[in-house]
Design a protein that fits this description.
The structure holds three protein chains of three kinds. By secondary structure, chain B is an alpha/beta fold. Chain B contains ten helices and twelve strands. Helices cover 26% and strands 21% of the residues of chain B. The chains are: A mainly alpha, B alpha/beta, C mainly alpha. Chains in contact: A-B, A-C, B-C.
């Protein structure tokens, strides 16, 4: 849960000066900019190794979250077995101190985590877009006050704030967690979006739209936002990643709903039962590893999008030219 | 180690043949490694430069002139690399030399002036400390000598030495550019390479800078390669002129020849784009079309799609450099010896590009 | 100078907002949570404690909201945070005073180390683009940045504490055998107890420094003045440090302070896993014990610490960059 890694913002300058190869857009000129951008991104994801790994991992988790019953046959909540069993073919990860099958818990917990990731991620990004793009586009006093508000919220440490709010609420269900996280963590991506929107503000195609007499809202929604697609995706990934980390951390310290099946709550029970010390390390290690892998998937995809946006950062392993001399 | 050479022995400009060329570039080619494969940015460029000569290189953005400069100065960075040819500087081929051997040549004998001094000067160090870095890198350790020489070169370009303590952002654009030139002259090199040093200045400052460069050249005798997109500016000051297009030499020869009687259709187009303030009023014509995409190699002449004098054969055959009086022109119009082929070659240099 | 005033102004504004959030939060929650707390501790509270609670949470009082606010602010600035519920009758201030040095030591040292090492690795990694270091570093640390802090802590506990028995993993020192003193054995004990938590913090935070520095360096290395430095024949080391790193690091300093917010989050969780008696551990104890006065005060403390760090970093950046220094 460290500081978000930002490559230089995606609105930055291109890398070392070189001849500009024309990037052929596959879709014809009739395709709306959003579709073009998405298909370009899909191609970029396939060609970038990091992105592919991240996408595959994410895909696996999504599948597990959609069809957990196919993989794990036990009811995660039922304390039907002997407690503290080790790893065996019957119990791939063993059982908890309450006799629940750990593997089933991990598998079924995926759903809760993914819901948090996507819902909170989308909602947070939504707010960030609203604030960031509006600030950039409205300018003047609006920009000044919105930016100030964003900056202030950015600087106040989020996790302690989350803890305090959740403490007053005596912990909360998944919905409460999502709400609380959404309300507090939009500021970082709002800033990124604002700076890119600002750099786009004076581009020719927007001037053309203004001259055509389009209304501001139309311009913002139809022209500006589709151009920022790749940054929007990157912001969503960032927010989803932090939603997962924050939510699991809150659950871990007991501020989630201990009765939901989720990775964070598994860790909570593991910690409460001193799982590490009493020879049940899997109880803590397994769900933690899952969080790490899911987070890595988001982070890899995000990093790849940074590279796509700023070619200077790409790894230097292209077609080699044979040097002379 | 030796101290700075303040006693340069200037060669009178145009005194060729006496001491051999300062710089001889032969078939130099540079490629960029891009995702889709290698892109040829400089295609077999050849020329010679004699002591004290002023060579202007002109062309549109993206024609490869800056890449050519960096290739000569061995300053290319990945993904660009020299893939063929040689750069003989005072008889020694620089291509492929290791950095440690290049250090001996760098700045003492060949220096570089870049386009925007605001970007080319380290923003967090004072001018004086950047001068000091250069001198210490070449063995000048005495603080007195460093201070003395720094003040001397600044005075040479008309800047008060008190500005040694200033930071780049504290100087005006013209002063910054002149201090870059001063820095380039610290060791009185034999060759100064300049990459569009006037582009960031206003017209008045441009002219005064050019005059200053010319005066310094007369005084100290260094050769100059001057890259720009402003043909008319450089033509007043250069002896030889090279026009580049799509990484190749399009036309090359004595300035009077190339400027007054351009032969390559591209050069003619460039001339027409710069109206003379004193001449008759003529309609302003640009060159239609856009610069070529170098990643898509094609048969025939690069300029054919935009050429007003294009012939059928132009899209099939790659033109070589053909001699035309005292210039070389890469155009099939002059292929079969039209317009005085084989005539006076005393003014033309360099090999005809083979294909 | 004007720059410094602007930053100080921002600092004060954010401070004020944090204070106000702290004040308003319990009052905005459905069913004032403080009421529950008071009834839980009913009978054990002396009148001063009760009074302090009223001010902090606005319960059982006839005074207006504005009046409460003013008194609250006054209390905060005179250092009166009330009485701790879980450490009753100790004052909140004394509880914090005991815990704060553990955190400062642990987090301070680990963060400085992570920053120095991470920045150094980032510089070298960018300088040798395409080298072995550079192909390994980015993917490894991108993944590392997604790993939850507490999990790393747990893994370390498992490996080095439980399986190998190399290092202790509970508390700040061995409470059963040692008492705080100035003896070398005490220091040794403290050190050995700090090793694993510090390692956890180092491992999880260093990735950020490495990657942000590397990315900043890569952009800086493409600048003309770096190419110019090569043209002058300057030695590689000097270019890397004096021309590239010095420019690349300037925007990083503020990033350093900003990420302190995340470092603090990690510290809270790591202290929790190791039962390390610092401010973070106290916060979580306060949460589970419904000790709201302590919780509030700790939140304020953490926020102020981060704000101060950012202010210092901002000023340092301004001082180091001659463009702001001379322009004023």
């Amino acid at each position: 849960m460290s500081m978000p890694i930002s490559g230089v913002s995606t609105a930055g300058p291109a890398g070392p000066a070189g001849p500009e190869p024309a990037t052929g857009a596959p879709a014809g000129p009739a395709a709306p900019p959003a579709t073009r951008a998405l298909s370009r991104m899909a191609r970029a994801v396939r060609s970038n190794r990091k992105a592919t790994v991240g996408a595959v991992l994410l895909g696996i988790f999504i599948l597990v979250g959609l069809f957990p019953g196919l993989i794990a046959h036990d009811n995660p909540n039922a304390d039907a077995y002997a407690p503290r069993l080790g790893i065996s073919t019957a119990h791939l990860l063993g059982t908890t101190a309450y006799g629940q099958d750990m593997f089933a818990q991990v598998i079924w917990g995926t759903r809760n985590v993914l819901i948090i990731a996507f819902v909170a991620g989308l909602a947070t990004t939504g707010i960030a877009v609203l604030v960031g793009v509006a600030a950039a586009y409205l300018g003047g006093l609006w920009d000044g006050s919105l930016s100030l508000f964003t900056d202030v919220l950015l600087v106040i440490p989020i996790f302690p704030l989350l803890i305090v709010i959740a403490a007053y609420l005596h912990g909360g269900t998944t919905i409460v967690l999502i709400l609380v996280i959404t309300v507090t963590s939009w500021s970082y991506t709002a800033r990124q979006l604002r700076s890119q929107a600002l750099s786009l503000r004076n581009r020719d195609f927007l001037a053309a739209a203004r001259v055509r007499g389009e209304r501001r809202l139309y311009i913002i929604v139809v022209e500006v936002i589709p151009t920022m697609t790749s940054l929007l995706v990157a912001c969503f990934l960032t927010n989803a990643l932090y939603a997962v980390l924050f939510a699991s951390s809150l659950q871990f310290i007991g501020l989630g709903d201990p009765n939901t099946v989720s990775w964070g709550t598994m860790l909570y029970w593991a910690q409460n039962n001193a799982a590490l010390q009493t020879g049940q390390p899997m109880w803590a290690i397994a769900p933690g590893a899952c969080i790490a892998v899911l987070g890595a998937a988001f982070a890899l995809l995000n990093y790849a999008f940074d590279e796509i946006g700023n070619p200077a950062l790409r790894s230097v392993r292209r077609t080699r030219v044979k040097r002379a001399g | 180690m030796s101290s700075v050479r303040a006693d340069a022995d200037p060669q009178p400009p145009g005194a060729r043949g006496q001491a051999g060329p300062v710089l001889a570039v032969r078939d130099l080619s540079v490629a960029y490694a891009m995702d889709r494969g290698a892109v040829l940015a400089v295609d077999r460029v050849s020329f010679e430069l004699y002591p004290g000569e002023f060579l202007g290189i002109v062309g549109e953005s993206g024609c490869g002139k800056s890449t050519l400069l960096f290739a000569i100065a061995q300053l290319l960075a990945s993904p660009a690399a020299v893939i063929g040819g040689s750069v003989d500087f005072k008889g020694v081929n620089l291509v492929g030399m290791t950095d440690s051997r290049l250090t001996a040549v760098r700045w003492r004998d060949m220096s570089v002036v870049m386009q925007s001094a605001m970007n080319a000067l380290n923003p967090v160090k004072s001018i004086g400390s950047q001068f000091k870095d250069a001198m210490k890198a070449h063995g000048v350790t005495s603080a007195d000598e460093i201070a003395g020489r720094s003040a001397e070169v600044l005075r040479m370009v008309g800047i008060d030495p008190v500005h040694l303590k200033s930071f780049p952002h504290q100087l005006s654009g013209g002063m910054r550019q002149r201090s870059m030139i001063a820095m380039a002259l610290l060791f009185t090199p034999d060759l100064v390479i300049m990459d569009e040093p006037t582009s960031a200045l206003d017209v008045v400052a441009q002219r005064s800078l050019m005059v200053q460069i010319k005066n310094l050249q007369a005084e100290l005798g260094f050769a100059v390669i001057f890259v720009t997109h402003d043909m008319s500016l450089v033509s007043h000051f250069s002896q030889r002129l090279m026009v580049m297009y799509a990484g190749q030499v399009a036309e090359w020869g004595a300035t009077r020849s190339v400027f007054d009687t351009p032969r390559h259709p591209y050069s003619i187009g460039l001339m027409d784009a710069f109206p003379s303030i004193k001449g008759e009023r003529v309609p302003l014509t640009g060159i239609p079309g856009r610069p070529p995409d170098l990643s898509r190699r094609q048969q025939g002449c690069w300029f054919a799609p935009r050429c007003p004098q294009v012939m059928a054969v132009c899209t099939e055959t790659n033109p070589d450099l053909y001699p035309v009086r005292d210039a070389l022109v890469r155009c099939l119009l002059y292929a079969a010896g039209a317009d005085g082929a084989g005539a006076d070659r005393a003014g033309a240099d360099g090999k005809a590009g083979g294909d | 100078m004007r720059f410094a005033f602007r930053r100080a102004g921002f600092f004060l504004l954010t401070l004020w907002i944090a204070l106000t959030i702290n004040f308003l939060l319990p009052r905005l929650m459905p069913g004032n949570p403080a009421l529950a707390m008071v009834s839980k501790f009913h009978g054990q509270l002396n009148p001063q404690a009760l009074h302090a609670l009223e001010i902090l949470f606005g319960i059982n009082t006839q005074t207006s909201l504005w009046q409460q606010y003013v008194t609250y602010l006054h209390n905060v600035f005179t250092g009166n945070f009330g009485t701790s519920m879980s450490f009753y009758p100790a004052s909140v201030r004394s509880v914090i005073g005991g815990a704060i040095w553990w955190t400062v030591g642990l987090v301070g040292v680990a963060t400085v180390l992570a920053f120095v090492l991470g920045t150094g690795l980032g510089i070298v990694s960018a300088w040798r683009r395409g080298g072995q270091l550079d192909s390994v570093v980015p993917p490894v640390f991108v993944i590392a940045s997604a790993v939850p802090y507490f999990w790393v802590a747990m893994v370390l506990v498992l490996i080095f504490g439980i399986s190998l028995h190399w290092l202790p993993y509970i508390g700040g020192y061995n409470v059963s055998s040692d008492t705080p003193s100035l003896s070398p054995s005490y220091f040794g004990d403290v050190l050995s107890h700090a090793l694993l938590p510090a390692a956890a913090l180092l491992i999880t935070t260093i990735g950020t420094w490495i990657l942000t520095m590397r990315n900043a360096m890569i952009t800086t290395l493409a600048e003309d003045y770096v190419r110019m430095a090569r043209a002058k024949g300057l030695p590689g080391r000097r270019i890397m440090l004096d021309y590239a790193a010095r420019n690349a690091i300037l925007p990083n300093l503020t990033g350093f302070a900003m990420s302190l917010g995340f470092v603090v989050s990690g510290a809270i969780l790591i202290e929790y896993v190791f039962n390390y008696p610092g401010v973070g551990y106290m916060l979580l104890q306060a949460v589970s014990g419904e000790d709201y006065p302590l919780m509030q005060a700790l939140f304020l403390l953490i926020t102020v610490a981060v704000l101060v760090a950012i202010l210092i970093a901002d000023i340092a950046t301004a001082l180091l960059d001659p463009r702001t220094r001379t322009a004023g």
